[in-house]
Amino acid sequence: MARPGPDERRRRVTTHYPIAHTPPPQPVAPPSGAPRPRLTFIGTGYLGATYAICFAELGYEVMGIDINAERLARLSAGQVPFHEPGLDELLRRNLAAGRLRFSADFAEAASFGDVHFICVQTPQRADGLGADLSFVENAVTALAPHLRRKALIVGKSTVPVGTAEWVEQLVGKHAAAEHDIEVAWSPEFLQEGYAVEDVLRPSRIVLGVKSSWAHSMLHSAHKGVFDLAANEDREVPVVVTDFATAELAKVAANAFLATKISFINAMAEICEVAGGDVTHLARAIGHDPRIGNKFLRSGVGFGGACLPKDIRAFQARAQELGAGEALRFLHEVDLINQRRRGRVVQLAADLLGRSYGPAGPDLTGTRIAVLGASFKPNTDDVRDSPAVAVATKLVRAGAQVSIYDPQGMDNAAKALPEAEYTASLTAAATGADLVCVLTAWDEFRYVDPAVLGEHVAGRRIIDAMNCLDMPLWTAAGWEFRGMGRPS
Ligand code: UGA
């Protein structure tokens, strides 16, 4: 049989499948002959490992695939290679139950799986703002030649719009045509620190599909999620749509969240010059249900592996598509976010009585305790962490910086070896002229200011997360600075 080209394949699957208001499809048998589709998750980083473990917990037979032998060995031994509450226990339980295994062998993945989820990273390109898709390409081209029966390849990684079509073309080039391998896109919305909950009980599921077979197979691959919801008397909204909308759903959601955070941080800048208190302002507007109070916490701005790089990749893609102007505001969102990091350094200079010149302040001879390194609490992830970025600026300004974080120390020490790392909050603060809270861990939020005051050289604190009880600290004799709050 002649192999259809990508355009022909696309025409064939799109013409007969109406996607608007599509009801749950008729079940189709998994090509492997197993009663439920067998799932592979390619890439066992944050996303893939969490999904693999959680879907095994939902009862699926699952294989996690990676090229990183050390990571696979740790996962196979029951160790999650990053900190995520609740995941270790689920990993060990599902390894023991025999539903979950890990492999580096793409041939094994191909013979095992019915639905292959691509969960690899899409970092910012070294040479620009766009996303580096080489990991996606490698995953697809490593798997496709080994496929020996019909299967569905589903993208989960965050990608520029148009990637799913490109993946379909890659599959057309690298897989045998007679197996009619199909592609779908189903973005994920999990938040680090709540990842288990977000996978087992998602706020919504988006399915970008081109055929009823793909829709049906993806529905079966999520049936465990729907069954769990039904048992708990909940419903999981499902949006069935085209590839482009599915891809955009992810970047649009992250762009909206980033914009909301930068909006309140822009209000913090205004409060700083007008004498208002942005934490009160956020409450005053957040009670309006049209606005909502979530993602309205002002502070040092957003970080992590997703929001910052996603808004940049989104702008780069819009530019390529000739619609750069539509997303020009995201550049402003990014700038507001970056300014917040500089603002903490400015407050540090103010509190320590150092003048702030064009190259920043000279903090030589000062000792600063940085509380927090991870980009948010309940994770050890320090990628694009505002805490590490601020600590780096303080080190560059000449301060002696000691850092404490309940989980992120090892990763932070790799990112910023010039700082000192201490085994406890108290050790970091001992002898400090200034304490900066840069991650809102509970351990920092509920520390007793009177007790901590006994250890420091000067009672000065910057609450860069607006997470402390300001009157409590000032009553204990601390000079206190928040973000967008009166001193
Ligand atoms: C984000 C999205 O929230 C997820 O829905 C998405 O799936 C994920 O990216 C992804 O693309 O994979 P995550 O990076 O885990 O999740 O972190 P968030 O909870 O969104 O926080 C991001 C940053 O915003 C953190 O630095 C946090 O401190 C900051 N933030 C959050 C604020 O400054 N203010 C807020 O009100 C909320």
Name the descriptors.
43% helix, six-stranded parallel β-sheet, binds uridine-5'-diphosphate-glucuronic acid, alpha/beta, 487 residues, 16 strands
Overall description:
The chain has 487 residues and is an alpha/beta fold. It has 20 helices and 16 strands. It has a six-stranded parallel sheet with strand order 3-2-1-4-5-6, with helices on both faces. Helix 2 crosses helix 4. The longest helix is centred in the middle third of the chain and has 32 residues. The site of uridine-5'-diphosphate-glucuronic acid has 21 residues, from helix 11.
The coarse silhouette is elongated
Secondary structure: number of strands: 16
Percent of residues in helices: 40-55%
Structural class comes to: alpha/beta
